[in-house]
Write a structure and sequence with these properties.
Residues 99-227 form the DUF4232 domain. Residues 66-95 have a biased composition (Polar residues). Pfam families: DUF4232. Residues 26-95 are annotated as: Disordered. The chain is of the alpha+beta class and 236 residues long. Helices cover 20% and strands 23% of the residues. The chain is built from three helices and 13 strands. The protein is globular, with a radius of gyration of 39 Å. The relative contact order is 0.15.
Length: 236
C-alpha cells in the first residue's frame, strides 16, 4: 500500500511539472485561471474609466442607450414643474395656497380721491399664507365684459399675504371728463380670483357689499394688479 501511494504522488508531481513546462498544447505557457480578486479589480477599473459610469441610470441597448430608470427623471421633472413661481418666474419654494372667497374678507370702498375710483381690500382670514396672483376679475351686476388691468401697476412678484395681512387693488370706475360710454349704476359686485397662470381659476369668488345707492361705471372701467402696499396705488 505504501508503495502505491508513493507512485501516485510521484505521478501527480510529474503531471504538474509537465503541465508547467508544456503549456496548453499551443506552445504557450498556461498561467492558470485568473484570480477572482484580480478579475473584480480589473472590472472596477474599467467601469471607473467608462464615460457611462457617471450616468448609472443608463444601460446599453444595441447601438444606443436607454434610461433604465425613467421614473426618476419623470419625478424630478414633475417636482420642478409643480414648484410655484412668482410673476417673474422665480420659484417660491413652497406649496401655494391661493387667496379667494373662502379664506379672505373682501371690501369695496368708493373713494372721493382720486375721483371716480374705488378701493378693493382683501384680508387673509385663513390660518396659512395665501397668494394673490395678477389682478381682480370684476363683474358688476350682469356685465358681459371683463375690465382690463393697467399693466403699469404690475408688481415685481406675486403678492403673498400672511394670516391677518391685507392686499389692495384700485378700480377706475369712469372717466372724469365724461369720455366713457355705456355708463350705468351697478348694485352688485363680484370679485373673481386668478390662479398661478393668467386667466386661470383661482377658486371661489367674493361679493363685497356696495353702497345702497350703487356704483356708477362706464366703458373706461379698469383695475390695477393686486398690491401688497396701499402706497403703490395711492396716486393711480
Amino acid at each position: 500500500m505504501r508503495h502505491i501511494r508513493l507512485i501516485a504522488a510521484t505521478g501527480t508531481a510529474v503531471a504538474a511539472l509537465a503541465l508547467t513546462a508544456c503549456g496548453n498544447g499551443t506552445g504557450t505557457e498556461d498561467e492558470g485561471a485568473a484570480s477572482p480578486k484580480a478579475t473584480v479589480a480589473a472590472a472596477e477599473t474599467d467601469v471607473s474609466k467608462s464615460p457611462e459610469s457617471s450616468s448609472p441610470a443608463k444601460e446599453a441597448t444595441g447601438g444606443g442607450t436607454t434610461d433604465a430608470s425613467p421614473l426618476s427623471r419623470t419625478d424630478a421633472s414633475s417636482a420642478k414643474s409643480a414648484a410655484p413661481t412668482t410673476r417673474k418666474g422665480q420659484s417660491t419654494g413652497r406649496s401655494v395656497v391661493l387667496c379667494n372667497g373662502t379664506n379672505t374678507a373682501v371690501t369695496a370702498q368708493p373713494l372721493n380721491r382720486p375721483l371716480n375710483h374705488m378701493l378693493l381690500t382683501v384680508k387673509n382670514t385663513g390660518s396659512k399664507s395665501c397668494d394673490l396672483p395678477y389682478y381682480p376679475v370684476l363683474r358688476f351686476d350682469q356685465m358681459q365684459w371683463v375690465p382690463q388691468a393697467d399693466e403699469g401697476t404690475e408688481p415685481q412678484s406675486v403678492v403673498s399675504l400672511a394670516p391677518g395681512e391685507s392686499g389692495y387693488a384700485g378700480v377706475l370706475l369712469s372717466a372724469a371728463d365724461g369720455s366713457g360710454s355705456g355708463g350705468m349704476t351697478a348694485h352688485k359686485l363680484t370679485v373673481g380670483f386668478q390662479g398661478m397662470t393668467p386667466n386661470s381659476d383661482g377658486g371661489p369668488s367674493a361679493t363685497p357689499a356696495l353702497p345702497a345707492k350703487g356704483v356708477y361705471y362706464d366703458s373706461t372701467l379698469k383695475v390695477t394688479y393686486w398690491q401688497r402696499d396701499l402706497d403703490a396705488i395711492s396716486n393711480w
